[in-house]
Amino acid sequence: MSKSEQTMGNTDPFIDIRKKYESLRGKYSDIIVSSFSETDFKRYNEILFSAHSCGIEGNSFSVDDTRELREKGYALNLVNKTLLEAFEILDHFKAYDYVLKHPGAELDERLVKHLHVLLTKNTISYKGYRPGEYSKTQMAAGDTIFRDTKKAVANMPKMLESFNRAIKEDRTHPLELSAIFHQMFIYSHPFPDGNGRLGRLLSNFILGRFGHPHIIILKEERQNYIDALKASDKHNNMLPIVNFFYDTSIKRMQKEIGQKKNLSKNFNLGIEKGEKRNRGISY
Fold first, then answer.
1. What's the CA gap between 57 and 70, in Å, rounded?
2. 194 marked ligand binding residue
3. pTM above 0.70, yes or no
């Protein structure tokens, strides 16, 4: 962990944005999280996260499509959607559910491989691979060639142990730790398929361990997300991906807090108008 953190320089570049994040996190908990039941908030995150995480990889299900799939399951009548896309979302539900139910699990190969099995159980065989098995060939995506696969796979236990220790020591801010892990896991790219979805799940596993809001990278932000990953790799510096994680989380909290306040304002205004009409007052 120290080597990764050293790439960000000797001075702390995140003082201001960390304060902003923490201030919003408190408000988010009071205004948003507390307004849901635990079950409803889990469902809310599950649908948003699954739709966007799979959407980043090309899945065409919208948030509304994903909500309907969550409600109807295999009984959903697919229109202009493929069964493979539906299975991908359904598998993502199962993997996310496991993350939520095992917040104290060790971040090790057993967890990573098990999540990969859940995440790709009904899709990866169509591509000629087996769920939970590391890749045996060099991995690439678009114009990006990832780290030497054999070396990355061999280093996976050591890397996971390093982050597992960092979680227990609790010396790095959770969002920063989550982002740094994400960068290193994505560029290790140990599996033949599903690395992006799994990397985002594992980042939220880290955040959940500390009780922080889960990060949801919108599919509309796909290019900015990829650019941040590439910039961190190119310059061997975690600043771009950490800043992207902070920016993404802050924007989400600001948006949802704003929506909640507007709804409350409009609701109260509606009551006031109704009361005045009842008293014969017109506008």
1. 19
2. yes
3. yes
